[in-house]
Design goal:
Layout lengths: L1 H17 L6 H10 L1 E2 L1 H12 L16 H13 L4 E5 L5 H5 L6 E6 L5 H10 L14 E4 L16 E4 L5 H14 L5 E4 L11 H16 L2 E4 L5 E3 L5 H7 L19
Parallel strand pairs: 1-7, 2-3, 2-5, 3-4, 5-6
Antiparallel strand pairs: 6-8, 7-8
Amino acid sequence: MALFKKIVGKLKKVCKYRGMKHISRGKWEKNLKKKTICLGKFFQAMQNVGGGISLRDMTFIPGGSLVLDYLLLKEIMVKYGLQNYLEIGTFIGESISCMEEVSKKRISITLPPDAPELLNYFDTMETGNYANKLVSDDVIQYFADSKKFDFSKIKERIDLYFIDGDHSYEGVYTDTKKVFNHKSKDSFVVWHDFKFSDMSIRREVVQAVVDAIGLEQFKRVYCCDNNMCGIYVPDKYRKDFNKLCHYNPDILYTYNLKLEIHE
């Protein structure tokens, strides 16, 4: 009987989201194509000002983000002098580790390391359980399903939110709704997996964002040419990002990397 109720409950959830009236893809897809920023141009401007920026503790384990995803987060914090960072979905802890030197406070809402989803993932990978491995003690962590988490527990003003948890329509829709109800007027929101690794749009994720915030707010959303992120940009910073949407496609930007291995 208990199993039957559980199955019925899941079916009701699926029906709830599938039965929603979605905003037509045609209404947001053209807008997004015009709002693609050139990351090379963005990073180059920052390099000229601050001498470049570095990353550490990269694992390159499948399931994490790309190098240019992490650099984007870090550059936004540095460029605009932001202080407080919150992420949904910490996984191994690469992104939140990257933000240590540029954040005053870091907050994580994520599944506990012994959650079945994480145990199964690392078992499939045939590795140790690396969940939360790179998270330092000064990070404020809430081990919870973000879809059920009460954001009123977070009293801090968050400057940058990074949504990288459940990538299903339901997960993205719910996380986005909660974040937009919590954020302040001038907060940035970045979604991971806005694109697939081949840089094509991940339509289910973008559709969930559009449905959650509406077309008017979606006018403030940009995507990037060479990473997997979508970015909600507050009005006071949109002029900067609009400039990045106009660039010469014949210019090839390259990056110099220095490799150091640590155990």
